[in-house]
UniProtKB/TrEMBL annotation:
Domain Histidine kinase intervals: 190-296
GO biological process: phosphorelay signal transduction system
Organism this protein belongs to: Spirochaeta africana (strain ATCC 700263 / DSM 8902 / Z-7692)
Highest taxon, organism lineage: Bacteria
Lineage summary: Bacteria, Pseudomonadati, Spirochaetota, Spirochaetia, Spirochaetales
Full protein name: histidine kinase
Gene Ontology MF annotations: protein histidine kinase activity
SUPFAM superfamilies per the UniProt record, alphabetical: ATPase domain of HSP90 chaperone/DNA topoisomerase II/histidine kinase
EC number of the protein: 2.7.13.3
Entry annotated with the keyword Nucleotide-binding: no
Amino acid sequence: MELTASIHLSEAQFNLLMMHSALNVLNVLMFEIVMLEESYGASSQSAQLTDDLHQAARSLSDQAASTMLVRNIDDFIGKGERLLAEWKATLTDHLEEFETSERNITEIFDILRIRARELATRADNPDAWEDFDLVTLHHNYVKVLRAIEQNSKGRYRIVYNLAEHDQGAYLVHFVVTSHNNKTIYMPAVLQDIIRDLLANARKYTDPGGSIEAGLYDSGSEIRFVITDTGHGIPAGEIKQVIAFGQRGSNAQTPTRGGGFGLTKAYWYTRHFGGRFWIDSEPEKGTRIELRIPRMQQ
């Protein structure tokens, strides 16, 4: 089904769309802190960490506050790392789980730095197009999937070989190609959108399922297609799930996202003069396709 409706966003909603990639990382960090508190009990340091993360997440709906956070991300992360070290110093034994989470949090902080740099680079020109090396771009998305797998703490695996696929793993097949076999020229924000759609496909598919995705620069348009064998979307709700904060009524469990990954994908596709399709059936899966006319270099 091709979707063509206009979306009207408030200033705060639009700013959250712009900062969505940072919000996702902050949500993952908050989850890690909650898990540590369940194992080791809350502390003054964990309370401060949680408060700082919540304040940072709330700031993303305000343009001035979010810009300040992005510019000062090293200071924000430095404080978080100090609080984490102080919390660890108050513990005396059974530190293995804490140290595992500490390594995860350090890696997530590194991802937050990268997202902040991307956002800062786009601040003056949110509609900027960039050349992306095919190999590097594909590698970056594999890193995203590995981070998602690691954050599951063993609840599932993500594999890329059919021979490794079982009921505890997601089988992912993702191809990136271009008419020149070297680079893809696309809106920089499309990086975020593809990350979101990959994460959503994983989130709404049970372990044992499959996800296929492809990104292609034809020289005249940019195409991205992703399919999954997940929960699907009820037919009468497909037009509604692109609205800000909306999910399908059959979403089985609460999620840590803001509920606007599809909104962002749809809004930017239309903003760049593109077309957007969703085809879905409950318990069979979903197919999302977007096509954006290619800006000539």
